Amino acid sequence: MIENKKRILVLTSGGDSSGMNAYIKAIAKLCKKNDIEIVGSMYGFAGLIKNDFVELDYNQMRQVQNMGGSILKSSRCKEFQEEEGFKKALENLNKAKFDCVIVVGGNGSLRGAYDLMNAGINVIGIPATIDNDLSYTDLSLGYDTACQNAVCDIVKIKQSMSAFDRGFIAEVMGRHCSDIALKTAIISNADMCITEKVEFEDILKKVNQKTEKGVKSPLIIVQENLFNIEELSKYLEEQTQREYRSVKLGYIQRGGEPSNVDKMYAIELAVLTIETLLKNDYGVALGKRNGSMIAEKLSNVLKQKMTQSELKYIFEHYCFD
Fold first, then answer.
1. How far, in Å, CA of 28 to CA of 45, rounded?
2. Burial, 310: exposed, middle or buried (Cβ in 10 Å; 0-12, 13-18, 19+)?
3. Which of the following is catalytic: 131, 133, 138, 153?
4. In which element (H, E) is residue 210 found?
5. What DSSP element (H or E) covers 263?
6. Which of 29, 10, 34 is nearest to 279 (CA)?
7. Does the annotation mark 321 as catalytic?
8. What residues pair up with 53 in beta bridges, in sequence order?
9. Average pLDDT, the chain
10. How far apart (Å, rounded) are the C-alpha atoms in residues 25 and 57?
11. What is the mean pLDDT of the segment spanning 163-179?
């Protein structure tokens, strides 16, 4: 190995998101161009504990940028959060002598990166979560693809529902962030988007207002973790004497080929990663704000809280009569 040649480790952690593989390929390509050795940790933080490291060869990656999921696999590693597991991870990292660990994931993953940083490990965080719930960046890797997947399926089902004048309720992912629900509702021209707990009676009132204005097949988008959409479907059917169907889109939003937006964002993140590495600027999370790529200190990232999405304003002005 050439003296002073950088050696980095990359891992993907938490929920998978389309674009993770695109980022891995892009960073591997740039590492090759900049004579940086790149290694992968299998199954995220679990790989640090098990010393499960693999060499990453850009020439062997072929079309992985078009695949969902992660070729490095992922996990939610509880052992890493415990003292014994964390110490084992540090021991393996120090023996391997990586110049930097790149953590690709969401909130929990960046918190793990922060813990490593506080233990003396050089880290860089990459925002990758379909939920888009990282407050420091306007965009997280995989969010655009998740919205695209949701819209595609909702539009198809909506066409079938319209043939029977049936109402349609679709639950989308997002955990406690409303961005997927709102963007999906805007693009699919939904009649209602529910992003907080409300009484079924209040939903019924809004549905009746829509049908009184001539809407024959109401489309309702619901953010997950609020209530049982099957119960809502039965309630509306009983109260309106109109058939309703409900669908949880679930994991279909995660998979599939990344959108062009996510592919491009993966490349942008990889370029900024290399720039950051070459400047030895560690302890940061990369992202995009107001159209510009940024590197935010991890200590600031974890302190920031989510603000109300401007998508709610857009939905209310675009979709409401």
1. 20
2. exposed
3. 131
4. helix 200-212
5. helix 260-278
6. 34
7. no
8. 41
9. 93
10. 9
11. 94
CATH of domain 7-142+258-305: 3.40.50.450
Burial of 213 (0-12, 13-18, 19+ CB in 10 A): exposed
**CATH of the structural domain 146-255, one choice from 3.40.50.150, 3.90.740.10, 3.40.50.720, 3.40.50.460:** 3.40.50.460
pTM of the model: 0.93
One-letter amino acid of 120: G
Place of tokens 């679709």: 170
240-271 tens-digit pLDDT: 999 999 999 999 999 899 999 999 999 999 99
